[in-house]
Amino acid sequence: MADLNLDQHISQQFNDELEEVRSKVLRMGGIVESQLSDAVRAMIQGDQNLAREVADRDIEVNALEVDIDDECVRILARRQPAASDLRLVMAVIKTITDLERIGDEAKRVGRMVETELSGMLAEDIRSEIGYMGELVQQMLTRVLNAFARIDVDMAVDVIKSDNNVDVKYVSITRQLITHMAEDPRSIPTVLKVQWAARSMERIGDRCQNIAEYIIYLVKGQDIRHTEFADLID
Amino acid sequence: MSTEENARPDLQSDQTEPDQTPSDQTHQSDLLEAVPPAEEAAKVAIAADRLSLNYAGRPALDAVTLSIRHGLVTAFIGPSGCGKSSLLRCFNRLNDLNDECELSGTVTINGEDIYRPDVDVIDLRRRVGMVFQRPNPFPKSIFENVAFGPRLQGVKSMAALEDTVEWSLRGAALWDEVKGRLDRSALELSSGQQQRLVIARAIAVKPEILLLDEPCSSLDPISTLKVEELIHDLKSRYTIVIVTHNMQQAARVSDYTAFMNQGRLVEYDSTDVIFTNPKDKQTEDYITGRYG
């Protein structure tokens, strides 16, 4: 865990402003986390009411995104932050964009439940997609913890774990192709499941993005678009 | 970004703290290796080597070693009394005027040791011009302020003087504002105009280096922006070294920034690095306004 001493500014007001932004990001992360977990549960259980709740909570997430963005603009204009303070503000601006998109993807998964006849979802697919949902939920929880603790090691673990999600996505896609080949009548349903799997794969990518922002925040090093082997070095 | 801008300045480890961590040492050795020595030497305008300075026995500079690159703007930042202005005054031997001043180490300008006994100090100060915190125009006309230096150098031709005055005032972005009243007293100008006049006076003698000691501290924001714009324009012709308390100004105008504290050079790197990802905790604490 890195110690950025965010509460050590001579200006107590600035300490408070940065703390406020950080706590709002975590609040937003908490809502998105619950959206994702409910969306996965709704999909597995075919619970359409739960799926609608996921969509409803999007309003709150969007409002927080706007609010945090405003707060960051105010800090940039009034405080002109430098070094780790500047990197924190930049990391927050980028993180909330990805969090909002994760919320959107969760909403997409939920929308699939609203239209999909859950009875048509084969047991093996249901189990696989449930497992993929667990993987991305773990990624999101861990990356939010990494943000809260400003923990680079945990962020690196999150980046590593995205590979598991990608592998699972390929495996599910293969299974879905088999289903479609075996029973063409299942194609409309299977396509929706495929979109849900795709949304979860994108959530994994967005968790990885957030992990990269945490590394940038602590190390001052932009590791986007670099090979993972370089990162380990 | 050009190769020159990419290259990092020379920074040696004389300011190493006894309890310095291995990672700090690694960072400094990286800096040393960043530029091949021959290429570095060709681009260095000012080099200080183990430069220490005492005022009446009180240390002001402690073994400062650094190279300032030619044709760029280098800013010095740090708390009051950290030695940044003292260092600046070593670059044109202004500290010589203080009898209680003791200096050790070397300063070279374009490879020449400026503290050698045979150095012509008057010529040195022509080559290394200086602008101070408060505008200090002479109580003469605008024209005579700028023509003062060239006259001292022996220029007598009025046509040549007029050319120099116009060239210098244009260079200092003041010509359009004063061209119709060159015979009026310089003291009638606003503070911002006076400071640009002083810069015009400094460049009239064709210096190689301009030292600016908090040049905007007594100016309003608009005048400050004009001087900053001027610094940007002038850097294609001169090596500029600026001392400033205004960190945003250092961030805006300089290519390299040096952070000093208690007479020591703490960190010296490209301005982008200093303001986004400084390596030293003291620098980080200072530029982010934390308790050091």
Q: Can you tag this structure with a few keywords?
A:
heterodimer, A: mainly alpha, Methane Monooxygenase Hydroxylase, Chain G, domain 1, 83% helix, elongated, B: 292 residues, alpha/beta, Rossmann fold, six-stranded mixed β-sheet, 13 helices
Structural commentary:
The complex is a heterodimer of chains A (233) and B (292). In chain A, helix 1 (12-45) packs parallel to helix 4. The relative contact order of chain A is 0.14. Chain A has 233 residues and is an all-alpha fold. Chain A has a single domain (12-232), classed as Methane Monooxygenase Hydroxylase, Chain G, domain 1 (Up-down Bundle). The longest helix of chain A has 34 residues, at 12-45. Chain A has helices spanning 12-45, 48-56, 58-79, 83-115, 123-149, 152-182, 187-219, 228-232. In chain B, helix 9 packs parallel to helix 10 (221-234). Mean pLDDT of chain B is 86; it is low at 1-8 and 10-37. Chain B has 292 residues and is an alpha/beta fold. Chain B is built from 13 helices and ten strands. Chain B has a single domain (3-287), classed as P-loop containing nucleotide triphosphate hydrolases (Rossmann fold), CATH 3.40.50.300. Chain B has helices at 3-6, 22-33, 37-43, 84-90, 121-127, 142-152, 158-171, 175-178, 191-204, 221-234, 247-253, 271-276, 281-287; strands at residues 44-55, 58-69, 73-77, 101-109, 112-113, 128-131, 209-213, 239-243, 256-261, 264-270. Helices cover 39% and strands 23% of the residues of chain B. Chain B is globular. Classes of the chains: A mainly alpha (233), B alpha/beta (292). Chain A binds chain B through residues 5, 8-11, 14, 80-87, 220-221, and chain B through 247-248, 251, 275-278, 283-285, 287-291.
